[in-house]
Amino acid sequence: MPYRKFFRSALLPGILGILAILVLACSGGTGPSSNTSTTPAPDSKQIFRYPIGPSDFGSLDPALTVQNTDISAIQMMFTGLVALSSDGKVTDQLASNHTISSDGLTYTFTLRPNLTFSDGTPLTANDVAYSINRALLPSTKSPAASFLSPIKDFTKIISGQLPTLIDDSLIVKDDHTISIILAQPTAYFLQSLAALPTAYTVNKKVVEKYGAKWTEHLGEGGGAGPFKASSYSHNKGLTLIPNTNYYGPKPRLQRVELQQSGSTDTTYKSYQAGQLDYATIPLADLANARKRPDYKHTPTLGLNYVLMNYLAKPFNNIKIRQAFALAINKDILAQNVMYGSVLPTNHLIPQGVPGYNQALAGPAGVTSTKGDLQKAKQLFQEGLQEENYQNAAALPPITLSYLAGSNDTKNLVTVLAQQWQTAFGVNMQVSSMEASALIQAQLGTTGKSGPLQIWTISYGNYADPQAWLSTWFAKGAPFNNANYGQNTSSNATQQQAIQSELAQADVNQNQQERLQQYSSAEQHLVDDVAAIPLYQVEAHVLINPKLQNYSLNPLVTIAPNDWGNIYMSL
Question: Does the reported pTM lie above 0.85?
Answer without folding.
Answer: no
